[in-house]
Amino acid sequence: MYKRIRSQLDxxxxxxxxxxxxxxxxxxxxxxxxxxHIRLLTFNIQVGINTSSYHHYLTRSWQHVLPHxxxxxxxxxxxxxxxxxxxxxxxxxxGGSLRSGYINQxxxxxxxxxxxxxxxxxxxxxxxxxxxxxxxxxRFRPLDVTEHKLPGLIPGRGAIIARYGMEExxxxxxxxxxxxxxxxxxxxxxxxxELIADYRHVVLMGDMNAHAEQLLTQTPLKNAxxxxxxxxxxxxxxxxxxxxxxxxxxxxxxxxRRSEVVSYPMSDHLPIAMDVALPKGYxxxx
Length: 286
Prior knowledge:
The chain is α+β, with helices and mostly antiparallel strands. The protein is 21% helix and 27% strand.
């Protein structure tokens, strides 16, 4: 038993020297075509750990450090869901360490879901132990993608900003994973609000670790004029959703055609989906 496990670990350690890209490149990614709507999804995947009870935080905690044979089965199931969307925000991904079999989970999910563009933001680099990351998947070629380290007492939180359409009036998507503390969230959202202040068409999506009412009334987002999901859109914990911690917030110029918490318990969070129509007259600018 020991020899088998040792052999598996030795093979994984050999693979860790392989270079890990952070972006798929955009050579073969379609242009942002004038579709009438765009399907969005945000999902905290908990590095592919299937948690369905509070006691799993203890009994499956080792999976945050060591590889597990069922992790790829979980990722494949997640990819099946992701394949139905145009733009996906991922939180709690691993960029390629021992626990993930030295596989970049963002790249793996993009390829398994058939989504041509992916971008991995490494927020906390623990070497071979863990590569804490955010992920961005897109069926369309963005104008540009930038990553931002969010302020906080403990470093390791980040945001990805992707812009689509015309340089003069783009559709701006901000993908983020905020800290747990309210003071850190306030600083992080002040930073994000400054980044989006000059744009008319904005989408904020991700695990924000707070309810929408607090985000839109007690933080700098109160000045951003964003529309939330219903307060009943509970996403955590996935086996008994009681808290609305995951959000897609949009500018009033974007018409929400459909929004929902997706009943797909593959993590300790449930995914949030939204279908938004582009602003009237916006398509004619292409």
